[in-house]
Design brief:
Blueprint lengths: L1 E5 L2 E8 L8 E4 L10 E2 L2 E2 H9 L3 E4 L18 E3 L2 E3 L6 H17 L5 E5 L1 H10 L6 E5 L7 H16 L6 H6 L5 H12 L10 H4 L6 E6 L8 H9 L4 E5 L6 H4 L1 H12 L2
Parallel strand pairs: 3-6, 3-9, 9-10, 10-11, 11-12
Antiparallel strand pairs: 1-2, 2-6, 4-5, 7-8
């Protein structure tokens, strides 16, 4: 495992080799994702996309996910320790990832003007980062720009499955394969999403500041959001391209990897 340290916190990173003359792809995982979770069903979609687009890539696990250091006191009162937020996440946690953590990570990696490829929470972080920082392009896969009832229902169901099903095939056991501290990974995501304060989460104003090329993709059958997410992005960003993938749920890179790759190759072609 590779890692880097930001203000005393170790983050898991992985590099995908590729040409150095083109902007690299930087992959931002979902709310329960990690470096390892990009590799599923015998495929590693980030590597496939890097090869298809002729670019290098970086994949990393945010704090509390994968093999990165955990969030201290993840279900306790929120507070700050230096430049890191600890305790229970607050509604602006993705803003902090986009505006503070990701810029510091990119600087330490020596990456300038990357192509951001984000999924779910990672897509929201990518949009927020692109609203303030220079990027070559931004790809938002199953993004959340507003909170929908369908997302809350799905996340509440995930909590029930996590707490009730203790079998080897249950949600907790399956997630534990990918996270050093599975409770840390689950609760930092689930608690904030089901908080009353998070119902007001809305990044449409921030999206209006994005000037970079932007592609937003969503599965027609996404269990965590409707196509309203793409509609809101298109309203906020006139330059945005949007694509809805049929027969596809919340994870297009798993449900429709070839179609997703083709869409990104077209979007990123010189």
């Amino acid at each position: 495992m590779q890692s880097i340290t930001l203000e005393g916190i170790r983050l898991e990173v992985a590099h995908i080799e590729g040409p150095s003359h083109r902007a690299p792809l930087v992959f931002l995982h979902e709310g329960l994702g990690s470096v390892a979770m990009w590799h599923q069903r015998g495929r590693h979609w980030p590597t496939e996309l890097c090869r298809a687009t002729g670019r290098a890539g970086w994949v990393y696990s945010r704090r509390g996910y994968g093999q990165s250091d955990p969030v201290a006191d993840v279900r306790d009162e929120p507070r700050w320790q230096g430049g890191w937020h600890v305790g229970r996440h607050e509604p602006d946690y993705m803003h902090h990832e986009a505006y503070v953590v990701l810029p510091a990570l990119l600087q330490q990696l020596g990456v300038q003007n990357p192509v951001l490829v984000g999924h779910s929470d990672g897509a929201t972080i990518a949009l927020l980062h692109a609203s303030r920082h220079p990027v070559s392009a931004c790809v938002a896969i199953a993004p959340h720009v507003v909170v929908e009832d369908v997302a809350i229902r799905a996340i509440a169901q995930a909590r029930q499955l996590y707490e009730v099903d203790a079998s080897e095939r249950g949600l907790r056991a399956r997630l534990a394969r990918y996270h050093a501290d599975v409770d840390n990974a689950f609760w930092q995501w689930n608690d904030v999403w089901l908080s009353e304060a998070f119902r007001r989460f809305d990044i449409r104003p921030e999206c209006q500041s994005i000037r970079t090329p932007l592609l937003a993709v969503q599965g027609v059958d996404d269990e965590y959001g409707t196509l309203q997410q793409l509609h809101e992005i298109a309203l906020a960003c006139p330059q945005a391209q949007t694509q809805a993938l049929p027969d596809c749920g919340h994870s297009p890179h798993r449900d429709q990897p070839d179609a997703l790759t083709q869409a990104l190759v077209r979007f990123l072609q010189p």
